[in-house]
Design brief:
The complex is a heterodimer of chains A (about 425) and B (about 120). Chain A is an alpha/beta fold. Chain A contains seven helices and 28 strands. Chain A folds into three domains: about 190 residues, FAD/NAD(P)-binding domain, CATH 3.50.50; about 130 residues, 3-Layer(bba) Sandwich (FAD/NAD(P)-binding domain), CATH 3.50.50; about 90 residues, Immunoglobulin-like (Sandwich), CATH 2.60.40. In chain A, strand 1, helix 1 and strand 2 form a beta-alpha-beta unit. Chain B has two domains: about 45 residues, no CATH class; about 60 residues, CPE0013-like (CPE0013-like fold, Roll), CATH 3.10.530. In chain B, strands 8-5-6-10-9 form a five-stranded mixed β-sheet. The relative contact order of chain B is 0.16. The chains are: A alpha/beta (about 425), B alpha+beta (about 120). The interface between A and B is medium-sized, with 31 and 30 residues.
Chain lengths: ~425, ~120
């Protein structure tokens, strides 16, 4: 049976970065990808805007993946494609993985595991749309794969539900390919996607964005014939009398992403209800020793660059992983946050390269973010505004802060009056 | 007249106010970096966009090839550029970064493959 120091599961922007950094740190490394080609979702992300942080230039998702793949090829990391991890079991000194591929079944042993399994899209059933189940209802990512990988149009007259980034990108993409996008409907009072995507994907093509409106019913037997949309109240309940019948042949859903953690759960890794990914420390180790998590598996990021950054760190830390007792200090946050990652600081691990990622719970104007230790401010950062769709990043060297296992570390937000 | 813009250069999505003066000068505020100034001044005089799309191929393992303009082209030429690219069929294997159309619509901007075919 083959034996590795680090096994990375998933070959997208997180897993590629993790495998490269684990190999660079001297670990014998295996990367497992269930599809025939590396790149993960980036294979279908033909649009640009990737790599501004990591490579200092604006690349398409495909180019971003190609760069990481070329870099991986220069390392000694082993690669298994079209291979699925069907089982992961904890053993005394590591993890036993059962793999399924065209060659049959095999087992490998690894000292440390990096979960880079990405995320899934929420579906129509998860957002309670009523009516029939005809062809023509797609998640935005599925529509994107049809169009950008297979070259097939999902439909001609489209309604998009949800203003997540993939939905906005698809509104532009479908319009460029000759479809009519009748409108983007968002149940919340604010758009979910990045402002630059609202601007360059909707405004540029005069595609209307309807806020506080949702799709309540899908009509059609064989194929979608129409949808009913309605205004919603502040509790997101449709308001009677506001229904509108919109003839269309396609409904595209961009209603959120959920970290994929089936393997993590099978290993007993505790998950954060807010991020829907594992709790972790600043080394991206989950609460199960030797199991690391990165990228969208950990929390859904806006940018592939951030996904790879956590992959870099998780791979490097997994490579230097040695069995030892951890001393975990919880990171306390106020209700102003939707979440903060990491949720714990391991006092026994390197503290100098700690990076906090957070999202605000509600849209805010000028805000001061404060990090307090025993009630005393040890760092602050000012923001001109914060929006829930936009993830923020704070690198902070905690090594000189004097943390002990009884410390109280907390993150707060304060309004700044100008 | 002041125009409110969202800069699309980077993920910061800066909200920019831009005003075109009588002598053609553009005054800009709200941008975090100089790229915002360039974006805003283009936006008031000659808005430009990069185009990302796919072109058909003859290969079964990759029926469409992702491509993009190597730089930005005038925004009003985007649909014309799409028309040119929708008529194109790639018959030879190319690599990520290879030019598939030289200077599309005489803009001086090449169209390049963004994946190995």
């Amino acid at each position: 049976m083959k034996n590795y120091d680090v096994t990375v599961i998933g070959g997208g922007p997180g897993g590629l970065a993790a495998a490269i950094s684990a190999d660079n740190a001297g670990a014998s490394t295996l990367l497992i990808e269930r599809e025939a080609r590396l790149g993960g979702v980036l294979k279908q992300c033909i649009h640009d805007g990737f790599g501004v942080i990591r490579f200092g230039e604006k690349l398409s998702g495909c180019e971003y993946a190609t760069r990481l793949i070329r870099e991986l090829e220069t390392t000694g990391a082993e690669l298994m494609l079209s291979t699925f991890v069907s089982k992961a079991e904890k053993q005394r000194d590591g993890y036993l993985l059962t793999l399924t591929s065209r060659g049959g079944m095999e087992r490998v042993f690894t000292k440390a595991l990096v979960l880079a399994t990405g995320c899934r899209e929420r579906t129509a059933k998860q957002v309670a749309i009523h009516g029939t189940r005809p062809a023509g209802v797609f998640t935005a990512g599925t529509a994107q794969a049809f169009l950008n990988v297979r070259g097939q149009m999902p439909g001609k007259r489209c309604v998009i539900l949800g203003s997540g980034d993939i939905g906005l990108i698809m509104a532009r993409r479908l319009t460029l390919e000759g479809a009519r996008v009748l409108g983007v409907y968002e149940a919340k009072p604010d758009p979910s996607g990045l402002m630059r995507n609202i601007s360059q994907c909707l405004w540029d093509f005069d595609i209307p964005l309807h806020l506080s409106k949702t799709v309540t019913t899908v009509h059609g037997d064989e194929r979608v014939e129409a949808v009913t949309v309605a205004e919603v109240d502040e509790k997101m309940r449709p308001i009677a009398g506001t229904e509108e019948y919109i003839p269309c042949d396609t409904l595209i859903l961009s209603v959120g992403l959920i970290p994929e953690n089936e393997l993590a759960e099978s290993l007993g890794v505790p998950l954060d209800k807010k991020t829907k990914g594992p709790f972790c420390d600043q080394s991206y180790m989950t609460l199960v020793d030797g199991v690391f998590s990165c990228g969208n598996t950990l929390h859904v990021s806006d940018l592939a660059d951030y996904v790879s950054e956590s992959g870099d760190a998780a791979g490097r830390r997994a490579a230097s992983y040695a069995r030892r007792e951890r001393s975990l200090l919880p990171v306390n946050i106020s209700r102003d946050f939707s979440y903060v990652v990491p949720q714990y600081i391991d006092l026994e691990a390197d503290l100098s390269e700690t990076v906090f990622f957070f999202r605000t719970a509600a849209e805010r104007k000028k805000t001061k973010l404060r990090i307090l230790l025993e009630g005393v401010e040890i760092k602050q950062k000012q923001y001109t505004g914060l929006r829930p769709p936009e993830m923020e990043r704070i690198p902070f060297d905690l090594s000189g802060a004097g943390l002990t296992k009884d410390s109280k570390l907390e993150l707060l937000m304060e309004e700044v009056r100008s | 007249m002041t125009k409110e813009l969202i800069c699309i250069t980077c993920p910061n999505s800066c909200r920019i106010s831009a005003e075109l003066g009588e002598n053609g000068t553009v005054s800009v505020s709200g941008n975090l970096c100089p790229r915002g100034e360039i974006f805003a001044s283009n936006e008031l005089t000659c808005p430009k966009r990069s185009l990302t799309t796919t072109v058909r191929t003859v290969f079964g393992d990759m029926p469409v090839l992702p491509v993009r303009t190597a730089g930005e082209i005038p925004k009003e030429m985007i649909m014309d550029a799409m028309a040119v690219l929708s008529g194109l069929v790639i018959r030879e294997r190319v690599k990520c970064g290879d030019v598939v159309v030289r200077s599309i619509l005489d803009t001086g901007c090449d169209v390049i493959a963004t994946l190995d075919l």
